[in-house]
Design brief:
Elements: E1 23-27, E2 30-33, H1 34-46, H2 55-75, H3 82-100, H4 103-110, H5 114-139, H6 146-155, E3 163-164, E4 167-175, H7 181-199, H8 205-212, E5 223-227, H9 234-242, E6 253-255, E7 258-268, E8 271-279, H10 285-303, H11 309-316, E9 339-340, H12 346-352, E10 364-367, E11 374-385, E12 388-389, H13 392-420, E13 425-427
């Protein structure tokens, strides 16, 4: 497994202004304080995170290894994507609030106001991002050949082969209900009003994004972070990369997600940072009903042999990822057509769970994950593979992924051992008597 930055977030307090703080380790010029270790241990206990061994050995060693990666991040001048970090920060705070009950209880638990908690989380997740980027750069050339996968599989004892949960292969046909022109006109009118208010200096774009945008970036004033063209929807990218004035607002841009207005924040070469406001026209109930009736007719035609599911998918389906592939759904996580039930869209999984192989569902309403719009679908269960011990015939892609993870782990471990040789490491007396993963005795 690749060794990532510790997920348990350390909210260290005592190292700020306390000159008597006890130092446990030093890596380069960076100290690891005893209070840092204690706080990470307390965090792991609070989140019921298992620590494989003595926490006073495992935790400081993990922190030391993280500092090796952070030193390399400085050398590589890795830049942090602020929008991504802020998303992680808000997600963590929301997790704490959900578990402790309120923001006030979170502040009481950590003995720290929310503003300080956010600032510290930003530092923690910025470091985590840098570490992951260093590791990605180190392992980006790992590619498995069939021979690599076969040799790796053959070395695994039979009783240690992974258990593969039940999987399914599913075909889908979707229809996006027609949205009334009146609804579209209303959305555009609202966006023109926002544009005018920004251009007249009445309101900041980011304030309007927080208040009205229907995109997840609204929390951050509509900021999406630095992106290349390929990371943005095509129409959005074209508009964003044509902007040059940070005070101006784009014309209304239509994408599959809805309608946007965009403001430039900064451009760096082939990457651009923008903020936007997204509004999505709403689907009327009568249009949903019409789409359901249409798919019900198509299902009857398939059942009566007038057309095959594959032909109907090609002719009717508006699911761009499956339409030209006989309606077969593709698992984005594994890049195969097999899904564990948890990886399917919830609405699809609910239908498929009780179906017989070859059966076609009744039409149902689901949310399009890419556009967050309602659509109507029917699905066909093509195949069900019961849970079993992994084998190369049925589970090649899974074993390929496991091999690549294994190989990346080897590369990371070798890199850490080499990096140890080029950086000063000191372990204070009382913290050395450990069965460490790496050999620090020569440091």
């Amino acid at each position: 497994m690749m060794m990532l930055a510790a997920v348990a977030v350390s909210m260290t307090l005592s190292a700020q202004n306390n000159v008597a703080e006890e130092i446990a380790w030093v890596v380069g010029s960076e100290p690891i304080f005893k209070s840092d270790i204690e706080e990470q241990y307390r965090q792991a206990l609070a989140e019921r995170t298992e620590i494989p061994g003595n926490p006073y050995c495992v935790i400081p060693e993990r922190m030391a290894v993280d500092k090796l990666f952070l030193d390399q991040a400085k050398i590589d001048t890795i830049e942090v994507q602020n929008s991504m970090v802020m998303q992680m920060v808000e997600s963590r705070i929301n997790f704490w609030v959900a578990n402790l009950g309120s923001k006030e209880k979170v502040e009481e638990y950590y003995s720290m106001p929310m503003a300080d908690l956010r600032a510290k989380l930003i530092d923690v997740y910025s470091d985590q991002y840098k570490i992951e980027q260093v590791q990605t750069k180190l392992t980006e050339k790992v590619k498995a050949t069939p021979a690599d996968v076969r040799n790796y599989f053959n070395k695994i004892p039979t009783d240690s082969l992974p258990y593969i949960p039940r999987q399914v292969e599913v075909q889908i046909i979707t229809i996006n209900p027609v949205i009334p022109q009146q609804e579209i006109d209303e959305v555009k009118s609202r966006l023109r009003d926002y544009t005018q208010r920004v251009n007249n200096g009445e309101t900041d774009f980011s304030t309007l994004a927080i208040l009205y945008s229907e995109d997840g970036s609204s929390t951050y004033g509509g900021e999406v972070g630095f992106k290349g063209r390929a990371e943005l929807l095509p129409e959005y990218a074209n508009a964003a990369f044509n902007l040059s004035d940070t005070k101006k607002v784009s014309k209304i841009v239509e994408t599959e997600a809805g309608f946007h207005i965009i403001q430039l924040i900064e451009r760096r070469g082939d990457r651009v940072n923008t903020r936007h406001i997204l509004l999505r026209p709403k689907v009327a109930e009568k249009d949903l009903t019409e789409a359901i009736n249409r798919l019900d007719t198509i299902k009857n035609d398939i059942t009566n042999g007038k057309v095959t599911f594959e032909q109907a998918a090609m002719l009717v389906s508006q699911d761009k990822d499956s339409r030209l592939n006989n309606g077969v759904m593709l698992n984005a996580k594994t890049q195969t057509n097999r899904f564990e039930m948890a990886d399917l869209p919830a609405e699809v999984a609910k239908k498929v769970d009780k179906m017989e192989v070859g059966a076609i569902s009744e039409p149902f309403v689901m949310m399009n994950a890419a556009t967050n719009r309602q659509q109507v679908a029917i699905v066909r269960l093509s195949r069900r593979i019961d849970g079993h011990k992994a084998n190369l015939t049925d589970d090649y892609q899974i074993m390929k992924s496991l091999y690549e993870q294994h190989r990346k782990g080897e590369i990371i471990e070798d890199w850490v051992k080499e990096k140890q040789k080029s950086i000063y490491v000191y372990i204070e007396e009382g913290w050395r008597n450990c069965d460490f993963q790496y050999d620090w005795s020569g440091r």
